[in-house]
Specification:
single chain, Rossmann fold, Ribosomal Protein S5, domain 2, 3 domains, four-stranded mixed sheet, 21 strands, globular, binds thymidine-5'-diphosphate, binds magnesium ion
């Protein structure tokens, strides 16, 4: 019999290759390839067209199959989930270490347990004592959550099989779990995948809402939860800057609902507090307008959020390569905007350092923020503040045109409600129904004229 071929699995993206390489050919991460147990290969001689069991086919309109959601009682968590937990589903909760995943899930677990449902929280990272201490700090000690510190999936599933089936099960984290039927240390792709498979199967068979915590890390020793994304029903990401108090819970994939609603929390001394009205959170709240600061009316699901964008430009005397540093926005998009400002508007950033920051630790990915970023950059370069109480909205094309974006009207109306007086955006009359004094800017060059004449 032929010797089974060795195979190597990238710990970052899960791709398989048949020889070891320093860099993964798929995701270009370095030193992430690890030898894995050889795959069982079926010979084509096996005839798969007979001898199987019958599969039941049903009609698409079969009634009574709609998932009944279980609210956790943490309204922001339920909102991000699209209405609550779905029994028999698996949720992957990703996020940087220390961002507050364990805190959030312990709070949600306590809420569900206080509601009279059976809840189990298994921690593979902390001892039970540590979790109890956290619960005491959060004022949750009296919640009837069943708590265990364990890492063996066989032990966990055996124990769960002997007790009342939990409605809600938290595994914190999947990278610490291991199964004795799989080779490799905890955290390797095969272990993570195998353990997740067993736990998800248990959840589906028993109607349990399962949350797997997964650390996002670039470290090659721990499998990034990317390999799990296709195995679970919902992928959530808990985001924020550790130095800021605000945290955003976002669904990146949701088989049961939309992915556009976010949950907003604030990390306080007694745990995470829900923020019901986040619209003004990401503004610095200063009275005097400052050069380099522009406000962007973002839309998160159905809720508008005003976000301050800050730019700082430092002229360099020497011929050193100028730095471009960005926090909360895509650096490639910044490079593109700088290039458009240079080539279409004749501004020069080439001998200047450019720093861009989105206030409050918010991460922006909406191209509708292009105009606000450009306004902050031009204002910083000219050292002139933008018009007082103004918002900026529009996507910028490579040709330097300002393009209309989704929900322009709603965003402008909401900004007006929150006390803003002027709106700048694409030269599209559709955006002009709010109480704001609206000014259309067809080209980025119009923005430059507008800032210079302020
Ligand atoms: P944690 O939930 O342990 O993060 P994760 O599970 O994502 O790694 O939270 C870590 C941070 O949260 C910790 O550095 C301290 C902070 N924190 C508070 O500010 N207030 C609190 O009440 C708690 C429990 C944690
Ligand atoms: Mg944790």
């Amino acid at each position: 019999m032929a010797k089974p071929k060795k195979r190597y699995i990238c710990q970052a993206c899960g791709s398989v290759s048949h020889r070891w390489q320093g860099q993964c050919a798929d995701c270009a991460e370095w030193n992430t390839l690890v030898e894995d147990a050889p795959a069982t290969v079926f010979s084509l001689k096996h005839d798969l067209s007979s001898g199987g069991r019958a599969v039941e086919f049903v009609d698409l309109d079969k009634p009574g199959e709609m998932p009944i959601r279980q609210k956790t009682g943490l309204a922001e968590f339920d909102r991000a989930l699209g209405g609550g937990l779905v029994p028999g589903s698996a949720i992957l909760m990703g996020g940087d270490p220390g961002i507050g995943k364990s805190t959030l899930l312990l709070q949600a677990a306590a809420k569900v347990a206080r509601d009279g449902h059976s809840v189990a929280y298994v921690s593979g990272e902390e001892a039970s004592g540590q979790v109890r201490m956290r619960a005491a700090r959060l004022g949750l000690s009296d919640a009837p959550v069943k708590l265990a510190a364990a890492t063996g999936v066989r032990d966990i599933l055996t124990t769960l099989g002997q007790m009342e089936t939990p409605k809600f099960l938290v595994i914190d984290s999947i990278q610490t779990m291991h199964s004795d039927t799989i080779e490799g240390a905890p955290g390797t792709v095969s272990q993570v995948r195998g353990c997740a498979f067993e736990l998800i199967r248990y959840a589906k068979e028993n109607g349990v809402a399962l949350v797997l915590v997964g650390h996002v890390t670039k470290d090659g020793n721990i499998a990034g939860p990317r390999v799990l994304e296709h195995m679970v029903d919902v992928v959530m990401s808990f985001e924020g800057e550790r130095s800021h108090q605000y945290r955003i819970l976002r669904a990146l994939k949701n088989r049961f609902g939309a992915v556009d609603e976010i949950g907003v929390f604030s990390m306080e001394g007694e745990g995470l507090e829900e923020v019901e009205n986040p619209s003004m959170l990401f503004l610095s709240g200063r009275e005097q307008p400052m050069a380099g600061s522009a406000v962007f009316p973002a839309m998160e699901g159905t809720r508008p959020v005003l976000i301050e964008i800050q730019a700082l430009i430092v002229r360099l005397q020497s011929g050193a390569t100028p730095r471009r540093a960005v926090v909360g926005w895509d650096s490639g998009r910044l490079a593109m905007l700088l290039a458009v400002l240079e080539s279409r508007c004749g501004l020069s950033f080439s001998s200047a350092e450019v720093y861009l920051n989105v206030a409050g630790g918010y991460r922006l990915s909406d191209p509708a923020a292009d105009l606000a970023v450009a306004a902050a950059l031009v204002s910083a370069l000219a050292d002139k503040p933008l018009p007082d109480r103004s918002v900026w909205l529009g996507e910028v094309s490579l040709a330097g045109e300002v393009r209309p974006v989704a929900h322009g009207n709603v965003r402008m109306r909401e900004a007006a409600k929150l006390g803003f007086e002027r709106g700048y955006g694409p030269a599209d009359p559709k955006n002009n129904t709010s109480k704001l004094r609206y000014e259309g800017l067809a080209q980025l060059a119009n923005l430059v004229d507008r800032v210079m004449s302020n």
